[in-house]
Amino acid sequence: MTPISILEQFLQENPDIEMFEVLLHDLNGVQRGKWLPRDKIHKLFTGGYKMPLSSCSLDCWGRDQEALIAATGDADGICVPHPETLTCVPWADKITAQIIVSMADETGDLPYAGDCRSVLQNIVNRFSELDLTPVVASEMEFHLLSLERDKFGIPQHTQTAFDGSPAIGGHTYGIDTMRDTASLMDAIIDATKQQNLPVDTLITEFGPSQFEINLYHQESAVRACDQGSMLKRAIRSVARQHEKIASFMAKPFAEQVGNGMHIHFSLLDQQGNNVFDNGTSKGSELLNHAVAGCLATMADSMAIFAPNINSYRRMVPGCYAPLTANWGYENRTTAVRIPGGEHRAMRIEHRVAGADTNPYLTVAAILAGALYGIENKLQAPSAVVGDVGDVKPTLPHFWNDAIGVFEESSFIRDYLGEELQTNYARCKRQEKHEFDSRITLMEYDAYL
């Protein structure tokens, strides 16, 4: 079916739709865009819907990069719709649908190199040239918090002890704890079903008020990220309806564990065979190359895996966040884990990124690392054994260091592109400058 025929079928099946939310992802994974009334949606499908190219590179507060505006004159690009993402929005007041778009140049012919979705698609295309298809799934952690903050603006737990203090733990896999939030969790699951989001499991996690939600694997890496982004939006929106805050912030509480996003991936050949599987528990030589590439490029990609000042609060011992580039079989303390199970399900679990990352860029950086290892036939070091969660950090664990490595990386430039590298580094430095120029309450407490 053509894109326009998919739209027509959707309109026919949903005659009551009044409004469409057109969603473009920026470098932080924030959904930007506009609302289009039903009678204007065809304009999007005929190349008549424009937004500034700079919309792809807004900082976390939605501000432009002045250097980018000066260089481009804030030129418009053409928004390209992806009809497979058409779906209803069950939490909207009006009967509403949503659709994801990516950015093309002003002619509409070439994908914009600064668009995060296009960057990921380019990596997928490079795998296609090797007759390989990445299969991707994600696991995301989040906190469910009270809508009201305390007098200092600090968020408050929904899971507490009898004296009102935060619960000591999150009762990992606790069925009774899940039942305590049943109405909200049921509403989240209902929303994901209405949006055709393939949710696998929903569990309580290690920390108080913390949960984890998993998606089934997809043979389209881009589609997997579409679903991951829309899942986060659905969880936040449904939680808000229930007067709660669902937060994917990496480290909302200094004294407790943070929120990670683990990415699982394997590679299929043209016959649908998993090329990581060689019939043994060790996996194939191609698996070794992919692991080696992920490790070799991990530091270069750290600014993506930990994209903001809070992300690095999670990068400390005891928080289940890897501090060094290592790997192991069935070892959850490593940066890269090879899960056990059936050989035909042999895969890589990349455990570095926080839940606050842009899923498109995170998966792009991970797959690009694997591709780098495969193309250069890198050999992974020996797999580690035992607990390596409390080791001396070798990955950048300060924001400024990570940005510096990122913007000087030839790997990032060659695989993710110079436009993305420049815009992302500039965006992060703009955000960092804002934090550097503010005085915190702790400074007043210590020095006033």
Tell me about this structure:
The chain has 448 residues and is α+β, with helices and mostly antiparallel strands. It has two domains: 17-112, Ubiquitin-like (UB roll) (Roll), CATH 3.10.20.70; 126-447, Glutamine synthetase/guanido kinase, catalytic domain (Creatine Kinase, Chain A, domain 2). The chain has 14 helices and 14 strands. The chain has helices at 3-13, 41-45, 66-72, 116-128, 175-180, 182-194, 221-241, 285-296, 302-305, 359-375, 399-407, 410-415, 418-436, 441-447, and strands spanning 19-25, 31-37, 50-52, 76-81, 87-88, 96-104, 133-146, 199-204, 210-215, 244-247, 261-268, 327-329, 336-338, 348-350. Strands 7, 8, 9, 10, 11, 12, 13 and 14 form an eight-stranded mixed β-sheet that branches. Strand 5 and strand 6 form a beta hairpin. Helix 4 runs parallel beside helix 10 and helix 11 (399-407) runs antiparallel to helix 13 (418-436). The chain is globular and about 60 Å long. The termini are far apart.
